[in-house]
Automatic annotation (TrEMBL):
Record EC number: 1.3.5.4
Listed cofactors: FAD
Name this protein carries in UniProt: Fumarate reductase flavoprotein subunit
Source taxon at top rank: Bacteria
Amino acid sequence: MSAAPSITDAVLADRYDLVVVGAGACGLVAALAASDAGCSVVVLEKLDSPGGNTTLSTGSVPGAGTRFQREAGIEDSPARMVEDLLRTSGPHDAEHLVELMAETSAEVIEWLVDDHDIGLHLITDYKHVGHSVARLHAPSDRNGANLTADLVRAASRAHVPIVTGTPVTSLTTADGRVTGVVAETADGVRTITAGAVLLASNGFGADRSLLREFIPAMADAPYHGAAGSTGEAIGWAQQLGATLANATAYQAYAAVATDEGDILSWTTVERGAVIVGPDGRRLGDESVGYSDFAGVIAAQASESYAVMDERIHDYVARHEPRFVKIIDLGRVQRAADIEELAALIGCEVSALEATLGTAAAAAGGMAADEFGRTDFGTGGALEAPYYVCRTHPAMFHTQGGVSVDRHARVLDGSGEPIPGLHAGGGVAAGISGRAGAGGYASGNGLSTAVGLGYAAGRHVGAANRAD
Ligand SMILES: Cc1cc2nc3c(=O)[nH]c(=O)nc-3n(C[C@H](O)[C@H](O)[C@H](O)COP(=O)(O)OP(=O)(O)OC[C@H]3O[C@@H](n4cnc5c(N)ncnc54)[C@H](O)[C@@H]3O)c2cc1C
């Protein structure tokens, strides 16, 4: 991973064309887009470093019809992306955003790479959950910290100040228009006036009381998202009349490997690993995806075990440093045979033999899988020696939020934009269905972060030029 650039202490002006609340992917992309259009922009970040959930993510952003796909011989289109995402999510409250994300995704990725030197590379070695073609573009080591670092560097080159340790605490309004923010700066509480404000401060995954209200099933689950996702900006927008959409949707993760939140890469499962409970029996169809499968596990057990073989283990270790990290932490154990594997899990050998035998028959195409899984990756039947990782399901981030239009303008109950107020990323309605974790396709989180950030930044830029 390349070193994160330092954030210099910026001297805050009294007014900006765009004030961005939150320095994750949404806020930083919006800042770049608005700055490209000649706007003065500041990004205010409440924590001491930028990045939020973006830094914790794999940095994988979907793009349909990019030149990187064409170079790799992959045929894709916005229509295909829309079809894929709606197949995964089912009908929901923000389908216009699915269309917008798909239509602009290639343009945004190419702009980030070409104009701002953001390191995004097409992932071609497997298709992600919910996508019928290779479509996700990520830092080469799939580490979101590098996406953040690249965006921060680009903001620095564009002379956009990112002011950390500066929580925004409320919005200011006049005559029904949002006119700025109140922030706790190093010099005390300040009001900063803005031509427009973008709420890019993510959702409410870190706030147990909001989870209890909207997503009670996950209110007590371990939370492994960023500390800053406490949802206050959604409340400010609601006070101004904003409505919520897809508010009970979320993304969870089925296989967290440490109490600190290090994940077992889902590539292991996509290449053929199976997940068993403490009794050595599988818990369901793992191929529903890491988000949906978290709920499957949580309903049956508080911990589970991912079982893979050496081919899968070595493949993922070659490609993913975060997998190497959990190996180095001693979280992945080797078992020469089923007896050793059962001892590591603490289950009956006979139960594990039955589980792996049935899964092998399904993976080899000799029998239908007991849970309906049809995709066992490229590995076929698992063979000794085995590797096992004890994991637990956890809440990652919320996917619902305030209703916005195609310019990321926040909408009131009549569907009219609230003047001066934009929202994107986790503050805005997501594209992962109306409820639960099942509608989440890989990349949906960064899709609305990057896509709505771009839409907001460009809209503010265009409005500014017209004034
Ligand atoms: C472990 C993990 C893995 C993931 N992997 C992926 C993936 O590969 N692909 C994908 O699409 N999605 C992924 N996601 C989801 C994705 O990370 C988020 O959906 C996305 O990063 C949201 O971007 P954002 O800019 O809206 O929010 P963030 O990146 O969280 O940025 C919001 C920022 O706002 C700041 N903030 C909050 N409140 C205030 C305030 N009052 N004043 C000032 N600043 C404030 C926060 O501190 C934070 O820095 C993952 C999430 C997790 C937790």
